[in-house]
Amino acid sequence: MKNTSRRDFLRTSLFAGAACAGGAVSPEVLIAANGVSANEKICLAIVGAGGRGGNHIQGFLKQPNVVITYVSDADNRTGESRCEQIAKKQNGTKPKFVLDMRDAFADKSVDIVAGATPNHWHALQAIWAMQAGKDVYVEKPASQNIAEGMAMVAAAKKYGRICQVGTQCRSNPAQRETVKFLEEGGIGDVRFARGLCYKRRKSIGALGDYPIPESVDFNFWSGAAPYTVPKLTRKNLHYDWHWQRLYGNGDSGNQGPHQFDIARWGLGLMRLPNSVITYGGRLGYQAERKDPNYVDAGDTANTEVSIFDFGDKTMVFETRGLETPDLDGAKIGVIFYGSEGKVVQDSYGHSTAYDKSGKVIREFVGGHDDFHYANFMEAVLKRDPSILNAPILDGHLSAALAHLGNISYYLGEKNRCSAAEIEKVLKDVPSRDDNAQTLARTVEHLKANDVDLAATPLSLGPMLKFDPEKVRFVDNEAANAMIGRSETRADFAVPKPENV
Question: How far are the Cα atoms of 222, 453, 499 from residue 299, in angstroms, in the given order?
């Protein structure tokens, strides 16, 4: 069918029958109710064919009439392998592999793009796709830095595109009901939330000089990041980029955006904070390797506590990469503290509400990635971005919280302090948390992992005042310089928000 009729179809098709009632309707019902003609095909380009790309493939092929026509990846071995796998799932219809995603975007038959690249590619691939007239599903974190997130928001608005971020908890019934419960006063007045990323992460190997896999075009892989000449300082090219700040954002910006998003959502915050301060470090790997001189290849924190002041509300985020017990039953989740009790979100599909005495008063259950893909497809078919459960603005704000916390940490990385010195500073930090108690728990956790804090002390970042309307730090140009990249490459420069 010609592209003109396809576009007319995509702009007029509606879900016939059941609607996605806040993500509570099953994917099967949504699939049966989409109203797509049996002869119509919605063409999808997959950008980034690694682990999360596999989830995108599985999720989108469950959606009605979606056919994957392109796969793009900087590793041709990974990309070609995915094409073969997809062909088997599509009754022999094999997508075309391309190194440069722009080759797929230039094809007018492509309707939607799903991006599961490394973080440093998220913004550029999404903006390029939207500029080419495609709707975009982009993985979390929405951006690798704050300026990129702003540019993505601007691009979606300018080009009138549907842009969903892969924070799938937004579509899960358990979390939608949890937030509704909070909004209706289920635990009274809620002004404080604690995000948790207690996720064991072992060393990524010694800092060194490692070869680039022959199947990888490292220039294209580097994309919006600096081209560091064809060598690696980490053993594994794939995945371990998360722990190097040129490409990733540490676990506060990897796993964290899910919890930042739920915390911000539950607190009803649609803006960035008034201030942030972070303490932490990349600690424990010397003890783990029994080598005091060991230098891990990662340069993001594996232990990090950030305190965000919103004036009338507070958010604290704790990242722990070493062995640790849970907190109130959660390791990866969010704890909301209300005047009449608390809610503990301990997984993507489960939360529990307690009264002030600790008695369970309600549980919330249910979640699956399929809800989020179906929500995106509904918005695409109806040409209505208001349907999205995780639009790019929400994705940007939640990722930006991780970026703000990291900026404070990076600026204070060389400011090594004792626990007593940090506690003294925290006394003046506006917060609804017991800052000293959270610090004490963090120190106890590190000591339990044999971290010698005398030899490798925690780092304390500066208290950074922030203007959420101007999206600028107040009187701190070093921090402002980290809102975007200081070094860009002409062929892969992410445009400024005003230039998208």
Answer: 17, 18, 32
The candidate with the shortest Cα–Cα distance to 336, out of 219, 179, 220, is 179
pLDDT in tens, 424-479: 999 999 999 999 999 999 999 999 999 999 999 999 999 999 999 999 999 999 99
Looking from the CA of 438 toward its CB, the CA atoms found within 13 Å total 25
Its pTM stands at 0.93
State the amino acid at position 454 in one-letter form: A
Tokens 């797929």 map to which residue?
104
Chain segment 366-423, per-residue pLDDT in tens: 988 999 999 999 999 999 999 999 999 999 999 999 999 999 999 999 999 999 999 9
The closest of 174, 361, 332 to 254, measured between CA atoms, is 332
The structure tokens listed for 334 are 């969010």
**Considering only CA atoms, which of 193, 165, 391 is closest in space to residue 273?**
193
Give me the sign of the Cα torsion angle 235, 239, 240, 241. Answer: positive
Please name the residues in contact with 180: beta carbons below 8 A apart, sequence gap of 6 or more. Answer: none
Q: In whole angstroms, give the CA distance from residue 272 to residue 237.
A: 33
3-state secondary structure of 475: coil
What is the distance of C-alpha 20 from the center of its chain? 24
